[in-house]
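Supplementary material to the annual report.
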Amino acid sequence: MTIRAAAGNSRSHPLGLGRRGLLPNLYDLIIFIFIAAAFVALAYGIREMEAPLAKLDLAPVTLDPAHLPEYALRTTLRMFAAILASLLFTFVVATLAAKSRKAELIIIPALDILQSVPVLGFLTFTVAFFMRVFPSSELCAECAAIFAIFTSQAWNMCFSFYQSLRTIPADLDEVSRHFRQSGWLRFWRLEVPFAAPGLIWNTMMSMSGGWFFVVASEAITVGDTTVKLPGIGSWLALAIEQKDVGAVALAVGTMGVVILAYDQLVFRPIVAWADKFRFEQTAARDRPKSWVYDVARRTRLVRVAFGTVSSATAYLALGRARPARRHSPASRARGGVADALWIAIVLAAAAYALWLVVGYVRASLGIADALTALWYGFLTLIRVAVLIAIASVIWVPIGVFIGLRPWAAQRAQPIAQFLAAFPANVLFPIAVAGIVAFRLDPNIWLSPLMVLGTQWYILFNVIAGASAFPTDLREASTIYRLRSAQWWRQVILPGIFPYYVTGALTASGGSWNASIVAEVANWGDIKLKAAGLGAYIADATQAGDYPRVVLGIGVMSFFVVMINRLLWRPLYRFAERRFRMS
Amino acid sequence: MDVLATTTAPLVEIEHLSHVYRQGGAGDHAVLSDVNLTLRDNEIVALLGRSGCGKSTLLRIIAGLMPATSGKVAIEGGAVTAPAPQVAMVFQSFALFPWLTVLENVEIGLEAQGVGLEERRQRAIAAIDLIGLDGYESAFPKELSGGMRQRVGLARALVVHPKVLLMDEPFSALDVLTAETLRTDLLDLWCEGRMPIHSILMVTHNIEEAVLMCDRILVFSSNPGRILAEIKVDLPQPRSRLEPNFRALVDDIYARMTVLPAGKVSHGAFPGTGISMVLPRVSPNRLAGLIELVAAEPHNGRADLPAIAGDFLMEVDDLFPVAETLQLLRLAEVAHGDIRLTEAGKRFARSGLDDRKRMFAQHVVTYVPLAGHIKRVLDERAGHRAPASRFRDELEDSMSEELADQTLRAVISWARYAEVFAYDEDSGVFSLENPT
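Predicted assembly:
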């Protein structure tokens, strides 16, 4: 994880904020309804099948250190399975959105909302659903967990790929059309290489975020049934049940080793390799380095293996090479009537979905429930806002200090990124044990857990921003002897602002998600709870109260979408317009 | 008399200044060596030299942006430890804050001095008017053209009423026409005494620019940077580039800058000897281009470098490395501001592509020690392969990482053109085989 990677790729916009032209907000509403309807359908389906969850034939998880390497490996494998699924999803869905206008109208707003939905909230849903649909077997539980991780990873990758496809330089596009490349050849020879840097960066961010969900998705309780898949998350859940501090510490250590190994063996080599796809004609001054990659590319065996893979893809690319249909430049602009018809169909479906949702929720919930959920949402909102503010006040000066000193930045940046990737929920039990021991007020002291893992996004983005701050501007402010207040106000804060916004919005989104596991915490038989929407969803989940889970997730998504629209998006656009260098 | 002497302390005085870049392991790299300089009232002085000769470092040391390794730097008698209030600086890249308007950018230095809002505004607007930017006060830098931006940079420097104006290649990021307009405007303001400054010290690598604007020119040599010559320019302002005296002076400076440093054994102007010679990245196409140009009418094998530079709007930094690489390859000789093709060079000019490659290969292996070294290693090894890191390490014993990279890239590019040996970027391996 290098500074350059963070700085150089910050242009791949988070949450699709850099999207050209706001799509009509009507679409957001429609998609919102669709997604809510999907949840309702899920919940409805589960309730229909009244049979209790069949006991799974799983080997019980034990707190035996000898099993820990195996658990770590299985956790890691789940992670990679999910990332592969996300890549596949990205290639198919993002390409569809970029090529078909009709698909784009649905897919892009859907992605936008889906990445704001608190994934942890419907974790239980997906687990329960998968286990109902398929006959009970270990593989199905695995699938459910992998699917849950997938839902936390796919959307931003998809967005990045879509954006790259839409910004392919006109000259390369013309060359590709001039030689009448088939769609398949064009995809592998032009589109994927061009999109690679952004996609790889987003994949890495997704994997960093993913550890949190792997840990959360392994031990799931739905109603009276608990599923524990062998892995670090289950180990941790068991350690909490048994109040075993030593076992928690072991899990923390193992997680640290796993993430370090993943950084050295996977992340760095791929970033170093992907450097050659950067669309710049001039050579960069300092390229990302990786010893693994250096060793690999000197090793004959690896080169042979790579050669085989690349000739296989070349064969694949050529195998389907048919001259492209002559496609007219006007094809995207054409078809006003067809569009109108398509929109009408979408609207009709949305109306039906709305009717379904309202019907389902009204059957079991009243207006009072909605108000309660909104109130809890408000409490969590305050918590997130206060914590992001505190984290900013602490980390912005530190990040600036580090970022302006290259030697410090080089050392601190990997640490900050490591901390961001480290699943904070592994540390929760330690904090909870502390709160129990000192009899602290959970309403206040559980809150910091929400930013425990996400605050690092602020730190490493600020470091990246400060280290990218141009030397000539620093020299100008020294020459004209700017004093500290003026320097902060006119020089460095505007300079890092775009980076800060990126970090803060990532942190804020992550904190909402984390609230579902942070506002309720157990230590053995002691249960701590803070009033908030996260606790509301967690409680409803434990009770198997699906209508309330749907309501809670709906309200939380609503809050997150509104904050993104009303706060982060305008801020981001403002930062891009005013504060971006050049 | 003594009293008088102390009050006329020079604006800037530098004695025995040396600067060394410390680098890990590979030894230190001397940037400046024993520089002496005095800047008095009412003069424009140029620091002229090729890129990498340390002239910008010297300017930054005077500005108080970095400390020198040894030697004395004083402004009006006071030692420089931090940016002095008497100096202001104009940057090559303009260094305007993109989020501040033109007015706010100009005001920034006044605000730091604690000047009140009313006066600040007044002075800033006056400076903006002086420099010809009225009407642009509320524009953001990115809305302005390069020339306009540099005018903002100039206004920002003038508004704090510095005694010394430091300019770091102020016109080199501008196109030819814009640069000329700005130079003339600046000279007019200077000659009419409308700028509140006493002296200007500017860094440039453009010989004509230095002769056009300055009263004194200090010519720097490279590696390490030291003052090669001090040239007084007595031509009256406004000067014309076409005047014979002007041309003579430019030719004279060209000649001085192409003189080989005394006592150097190396056959070229590049620092270092043997395989540790630092090589410039010059593409084979440019080498061939210059040979053809010199061989053709009206030069017929011998040309005046300033004339070529003038005809093609090239600057010293573009032209010298090409000429000197030809000299290293024994395809041309450079002296007294002239370039003359050798017999081999003339033959090269007459040959077709295949013969050129053959000749080039022979000269590269014979006269570029590093290329010969790599070729020998590849010949000796059984598999005829060798990793680039091996040679990189050898180079880094005597030069910085960056220079080692530059040198290796230069040799790779020449060897590829000559098909002497191949280099695989992905694996970082040299080999004798050509890719199939």
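The CA atoms of residues 329 and 364 of chain B lie 6 Å apart.
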